[in-house]
Amino acid sequence: MKKSVLEPFWRPVWDAVDKARVRKARQEAKAGAVVHAELLRGEIWAQVRISGPRRSCQVALPFLAHYEEHIEAVAKWLAMRPDWVAAHFAGEWDPEFEAFLKSNQLDVLPGDSVADKLRWGAKCTCDDSDPLCVHVLTALFHLIWDADEHPLRVFRFVGLDEESLLAAAHDWTAQWVGSTEAALRDATAVGQTGQAMEAVSAWDVATWLQGGGTNPVGRLVPHFRTGDRME
Fold first, then answer.
1. pLDDT, tens only, 133-183
2. pTM of the model
3. Taking 50 as the threshold, does the pLDDT of residue 216 lie above it?
4. Largest alpha-carbon pair distance within the chain?
5. Sequence-ordered alpha helix ranges (H) in the chain
6. CA-CA distance, 203 to 179, in Å (whole number)?
7. What are the residue boundaries of the structural domains of the chain, listed by start?
C-alpha cells in the first residue's frame, strides 16, 4: 500500500486510542473487513465484518461538517479545476488539490478536536463501551484509504456523495462552455472578428465564478488566480 495522504490528518484519533486497538483496526481494514459504506441520514454508515455468530457490526460516523446545502459551490470549484477531476479518476492526489483543502481550512480535513467529535458522535452495534471501538476505527481506516485512492471521496466526510458532486460539476462545466460560446458569438455578430478570441479569453472561469464562490463554513472564500490557478 502506498503512503497515505490523509492518515496524518487523523493523528488526533490515533493518539487518543490504545495503540494495540489502532493496529487491530488497521489489520482488519487491510483484510477488507468493511463490506459496505454509504452516506445515510446525515452520517456515514458502514458494515464491518466480524467473527462470531453476529458476523457483522453496523457503524455510524458523524460528518466532520455539513456541506450538503453547498454542493453547488463545491461543484464550481471542481469545474474550475478539471485536472483535479482527472486526478481523481486516475487515483492520484493532485498536490494543488491538497494545498487547496488545507489553505482554505475546509472541514474535509479533521482538526485537533476530531477525537472528541467521534467519541460523542460515533456509534457501533458491538458491546464495547468505548465509542472508538475497533470497528469504528476499522471503518475510519477504510474511508481514509478509499479517499486516498479516489480523492473526491474525501468530501464524504462532509456529507457530499461523489456521484452527485461530479454530476453537479459537469453541469457547471457545461454552463461555462455555453457562456464562453455565447461570448464568442456576440463578438463575431457585431463584426469584431479580430477581437472574438480576446473576448473568449476574457470570459475565463474566474470571471464566471465571481459572486458564486460561497464557502460552506462561512469562514473563507477559496481563491483562484485568473486562468484556473490558485492564489
1. 999 999 999 999 999 999 999 999 999 999 999 999 888 888 766 665 555
2. 0.79
3. no
4. 78
5. 11-15, 19-30, 71-80, 82-90, 95-103, 114-121, 134-149, 162-189, 193-202, 205-209
6. 8
7. 7-67+107-160, 165-230
Instruction: Calculate helix-pair angle for 95-103, 82-90, nearest 10 degrees.
Output: 120
DSSP string, 50-69: -SSTT-EEEEEEE-SS--GG
pLDDT single digits (tens) 43-78: 999 999 987 666 899 999 999 999 988 888 888 888
* Residues 6+ positions from 46 with CB-CB distance below 8 Å: 34, 36, 37, 38, 58, 59, 60, 61, 139, 142, 143
Long-range residue pairs from 53-59, CB within 8 A, at least 24 positions apart, any chain: 57/124, 57/125, 57/126, 57/135, 58/124, 58/125, 59/122, 59/123, 59/124, 59/125, 59/135, 59/136, 59/138, 59/139
Helix, strand, or coil (residue 231): coil
* CA 46 – CA 52 distance, rounded (Å): 18
Hey, how many other C-beta atoms are within 10 angstroms of the C-beta on 34? 23
> Scanning the structure block, which residue is given the C-alpha cell 472508538?
132
Supply 138's cell numbers: 476499522
